[in-house]
Design goal:
Length: 184
Amino acid sequence: MAKLDIITLPDPKLRLASAPVERIDDELLRFMDDMLETMYEAPGIGLAAIQVGVPRRVVTIDVSGRDEGSKPEPLFLINPEILTSSDDRSSYEEGCLSIPDYYAEVERPASVKLRYLDRDGKLNEIDASGILATCIQHEVDHLDGKLFIDYLSRLKRDIVVKKFVKAAKTGIKPEFKSHASEEM
C-alpha cells in the first residue's frame, strides 16, 4: 500500500463532480486500500477519492477509532447514493483533511439511508445515524464538488478560502482558533 497526497483548498479539483465507477478491478481495490491507509495516517475518519486528486465516486470511512481500543471497521463505498435523509437535524463540529486545522459546527440531517457497492461489487443499503451519517454526507458532498464550508455563512466561508489562498501563495500555514480531534 502507498500513502497518497491529499489535495487542499484552494485546489480547484475539490470542486469537481466525480464520475461513477464503471468496473471494480484489482487497480481499484489497490487504490481503495491506499485511500484507507492515507485516511488512517492523516488521521481522518473519511476520505473521498477526489481528495487525492482522483474524480471517481469512491469513499473510505471508519468511525470506529472514536472509541479507544476499538478495532478498525472500514467501509468502502463505491458509487454511494443517499436515498433518504431524515427531517431531524443534528450538528457536529466538522473538519476536513482537505481544509486542515479548520473546524466548524455544521447542521445536517441526523440520519440517512445509503445505497452503495462494496469492494466485492455487491449492492448494499445501510441506515446511518450519528457521526456515521454526518461522515457519509460529508464524503458524498465531496463527490459532488461540495465542501463542508459551503454550509457556513458566506462571510465565514470567504475568510477560510482567503486564508488558504494566501497560504498557497506564501507557504505559511493558516491559523484558526477552533480545534477538534477528527477530520473527514
